[in-house]
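Q: My collaborator sent me two sequences in one message, no labels, and asked for predicted structures for both. Can we handle them in order? The first one she listed is below.
A: Yes, handling them in the order given. First sequence, followed by its structure tokens:
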Amino acid sequence: MRLARVVGNIVSTIKNPGYYNYKLMIVEFMDEKGKPTESRKIAFDAVQAGIGDVVVVNVDGGAANFMLDPEIVADFTICGVVDYFTYEEKTTVYREFL
């Protein structure tokens, strides 16, 4: 699982019938200080996250399990919205309230 910020959503009028009624979001993975770390990805949203939310994204093969549908193929699924997180370096504690 990794931290990410939701930066957009996907609207698709034509898609695989198995994906109807599932929300797709654009996420940007971030480091412990909130800085983007790589290119943006598309993730299924299992928790009704919104743009600007910091979220937990499942990035392994079990990502589709959050959708509770055996027909879904997913590499990334948003599985939680983060209220705050704490990161401790050797002498500095970073605390991010969202």
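Q: And the one she listed second?
A: Here it is, processed independently of the first:
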Amino acid sequence: MQKKKAYFPRRFKKNDALSGKRFLSVVLFGVAVALVLRAFIVDIIQVTSGSMQPTVNLGVRYLLNKTAYWFGKPRRNDIIAFPSPVLKGHSLVKRVIAIEGDTIEIKKKEVFINDVKTKEPFAYHSRDTVILVGDNLGPLEIPKDMVFVMGDNRDESEDSRDWKDGNGAHIYFIPVSKIMGRIILLH
């Protein structure tokens, strides 16, 4: 009959301290990579307004591609995030409707870009028969390095049609340099 070996706790060796240091190094490297990604490449943004419904839903988190305009400019229909021109400390999500060089005009809620009526299957009007501020606008020519933005939920969105600064002057355009990135829709 064989004698049972007694169990003794494993003793620590010099290599155990090294593997702990390696583990800590890997964790710190992972955290550093995540911070760099979040600061410069991609971030998560949560929508807190219904101004982009039904395309971008209230309370849902979306990815924000911060590199989208490093080597190019915004295009019509891009959904972007940018600091609010009227509410300091707030960020907004809106759709680019017109870009530099375009002429925009809005007639009875219908959008015309360069004298051509646009097709906007994403636009939603909750008050079709009511003419609101911004439902007749322009024509306005979009300056260089600027965009004109609107929410998809047109009758419930405050956007380029109706923003005003502290002196009551209209703020029609968002500088491209202020755009934080393009929203990635994951449908």
